[in-house]
Amino acid sequence: MHQANLLFFSLGLLTMTALASTPRDTEALALAKRQQLEFRQGNPAVAKPLVKSLEEAVARSPDNAKLWEALGFAYMSLQGSMYTASPDMAKLLEAGERAQAAFARSLALKSDNPLVRAGHGMSTMVVSQLKGDGPGVMAGIEEMNAAVREAPKYNGVRLTRAFTIIHLPPGMRDNNAVTEDLRFLIDTAPGGRPEDVIHVLLGDVLAETGDLKGARSEYEQVSGASAFAAEQVKERLADLAKGSIRPDSIAAVRSGTGARCVMCHAPGTDN
Ligand code: HEC
């Protein structure tokens, strides 16, 4: 065969694979998007079918970076649905490791995606924490930092880093990074519930680092679009007078970033 023919032949193959994978993959991604929406609006039971349909999709199209990306986030949602009163640690770890592997696969196919980079960092941090692996935690954080440096104006990247590192103890956490992320989100969030809750999250970080004035200012910006946030603020303003916010109040809001997505993503507003 002539070289030109060879080239033509391989180009033809490339086109064929691209065409062959497109419609079903697109359908799988659209379904995943709908299921993720359902999940975040308060239906954790959708996490399992979400994972299953994407596992089937990557089995059919193992070279589609977008499918692996969606699968990574699906495993993270599945993990989020497992944080109950007494979570099964082995299952949590397994979901985290699967997310990490899916994000790694997506990056291997297409490396220049900051959101997937951040997702890989997030899952690495979570898995390492579950294993008590300190250097792994640091590597995961650094990967999220690199993603933010690369795409500082990308909402999803900021959200991923903020909502992951916020769970670290204040002494171990890069408080400037989490503060910067939350401020960015307040500036770009579409108002309503998410903005209310983010003011509380940011106020809590400021209170933990001794900036009680800054904390008060954040709490006072809660509009009541989220009745939950407004309720939390009432407690906090009383606490502030005593000099600190109770850790259990902080945990009540903060733990929602991993599992109670509906706290921000419920449709409509309360007031
Ligand atoms: C503290 C508030 C808050 C919580 C809790 C929260 N989110 Fe979000 N989320 C936001 C904000 C703000 C945005 C960016 C604006 C937007 O897209 O609505 C966002 C955007 C998203 C997006 C990107 C939307 C897009 O355009 O594709 C996804 C996906 C998402 N959130 C999923 C989740 C999941 C899953 C959870 C639970 C594990 C969760 N969120 C919990 C505030 C929150």
Description of the molecule:
It is built from 14 helices and no strands. The protein has a domain at 178-271. The protein is 76% helix and 0% strand. The N and C termini lie far apart (72 Å). The chain is globular, with a radius of gyration of 21 Å. The protein is an all-alpha fold and 271 residues long. The model is unreliable at 1-20 (pLDDT under 50). The chain binds heme C.
Low-confidence stretches: 1-20
Question: What share of residues is helical?
Answer: over 70%
Overall strand count: 0
| Content of β-strand | under 5%
List all distinct small molecules, including ions and cofactors, that are bound in this structure.
Answer: heme C
SSE series: HHHHHHHHHHHHHH
How many whole angstroms does the radius of gyration measure?
21 Å
Overall 3D shape: globular
Give the structural class: mainly alpha
**Largest sheet composition:** none
N→C terminal distance: 72 Å
Mean pLDDT: 92
Q: How many helices in DSSP terms?
A: 14
Topology:
Blueprint: H1 3-40, H2 47-60, H3 65-80, H4 89-109, H5 114-131, H6 134-150, H7 155-165, H8 175-188, H9 192-208, H10 212-220, H11 227-240, H12 247-254, H13 256-259, H14 262-265
The protein binds heme C.
